Amino acid sequence: MPPRRSHKKSRNGCDQCKKRRVKCDEADPCLNCTRRSLSCSYQPRVVTPQPEPKKKHAEQLIACTPAPGTSLAEISARTDAALRVFQRNLTDTAYFVREWNGQDPELMHHYCISTCTTLSDEEDVRHVWRTEIPKIAYSYEFLMHGILSLSALHLSYVKPEKHSHYLTSSTFHMALGLQTFRTILRKPTTENCFALFAFSSVIMVWICAVPTDSKDAQPLSSVIEMFNLCRGITTLLEFFPLINKSCLGPLMARDWSEKRGTPLRLFNGLDGQISRLRYRLTVEVLAEEERSVLEHAITELEKTCQRIEHARTLSASGILLYNNTRVPPEAMDRHAYCADCINYASRVDDMIRRTNNVRGNKQFFKYASDVSCRGHLLISKRCLRYRRAFLDDPDKFMFDIEVPSQACIAIKAC
C-alpha cells in the first residue's frame, strides 16, 4: 500500500467551509463556495508589516527600480489585487479535484526534455531553467506547480488533439501555485526569495502564452493586468543583489543599458512617432501632474527601444519589452503607455516574421521567453489582435472598453 499523501493543516479557511467541516482552498472566494453559489467570507487576518527595503543596490539593477514617487507598499497592494483577480479567473476554470495526479510525472518529464529548452537562446539561461529552478522547486510546491503549468501549456500546443485537456491541466496547476505564492509574497525572506523570483518569471511567461478567447477579451485591460502582475517582482527589490549572485544570476546579469545618440534601425520611423506623442502632450489640456506622468512613460518607452536596439541576439530583441517597474501606475491607468507598447509589439512581430525567428510549436516559448525573469515584460501576439481590433472599428473598440483619448493618440501615431 502506498504511503498516505501528506498535507498541510490550516485554520485559515473561510467561515462557510469551517461550518461544513470541509477542506477550503483559501481562495477568495473559495472553490467550494463558488460551486455552491454561496457568499464566501473570512475572519479578519492580521498581516505583519514589512520593514522598509534597502535603497542601494548594484548599478546593473537600477533599471529594475520603481518609478520615482511610487512606494513598494503601493506596488504590493496593486500586485496583490491583480493576483487575486488573476487567481479567481483561474479558479473558475480549474474545476476538477485539487490534488496531484498520475499526469504530473508526464508533465515534469516533458518540461525537462523539451519545455525548458524553449525558454531561452542562451545556454547559461537554459541551464537555470533546466536544472536550477527545478532544484528550488523540490522545496517549494508552488514553484513545482508553476513548472508543471508551463509544461502542460506547452503540450497543449505540441499535441493539438489534446489541447483542451492540457490547457485545463495548465490552469489547474497555475491556480494551485498562486494560492501559496500570494501568501508567501507578502513575507519574502532570504530563503524563499529565489522561489518567489522564479515563480514571478513563470507567471509572466504563462500569461503571455496562454490562449485568450477573443470574444471575452478585455484588450487594454488585459495588458494592464499583465503590467501590474509584472510589477510584483519589485516586492523582491531588496533581494535582487542576493538573487543576482545566486544560481539564478544568469537570469538577471545582462546588460540592457540604453546607448543614446544612435538611430533606431530596427524600428525605422519610431523616433518620429515618439516626437508626435510628445507634441500631443503639449497641445492636450492636462493637469501638470498628469502631463508629467505621461511624459515619464514616453521617456521610458524611448529607453526601451534603445535597449532593444543593442540587445545581443535578434530573438531577444524580438521578445523584450523593457520592464514597466519604472513607469508610474498612473500612466498605465490612463492606458497611454500601454497603447504605445501595443504599437511597439506590432513592429516587433513584423521584424520577427521577416527574420523567420518563430517557427511553429518548437519555438513556442521563444516568443515569450527568457527576459521575463529579469523584471522585463513580455508582449504576446494577442496584443496585436487588440490593436487590429481597434484599427478595424475604433469607435466600437473605444465604446466597449472606454479607452481614454491618450490611448487613441498613441495607437493612431503608428
From TrEMBL:
Record keywords: DNA-binding, Nucleus, Transcription, Transcription regulation
Q: Which SMART domains match?
A: GAL4 (SM00066)
Which residues belong to any copy of the Zn(2)-C6 fungal-type domain?
A: 13-42
- What PROSITE patterns would the database entry show? ZN2_CY6_FUNGAL_1, ZN2_CY6_FUNGAL_2
User: SUPFAM superfamilies per the record?
Assistant: Zn2/Cys6 DNA-binding domain (SSF57701)
* InterPro entries, per database record: Fun_TF, Sterol_Uptake_Regulator, Zn2-C6_fun-type_DNA-bd_sf, Zn2Cys6_DnaBD
CDD domains from the UniProt entry = GAL4
What are the TM regions of this chain, as residue ranges? none
One example GO MF annotation: zinc ion binding
**What's the protein name?**
Zn(2)-C6 fungal-type domain-containing protein
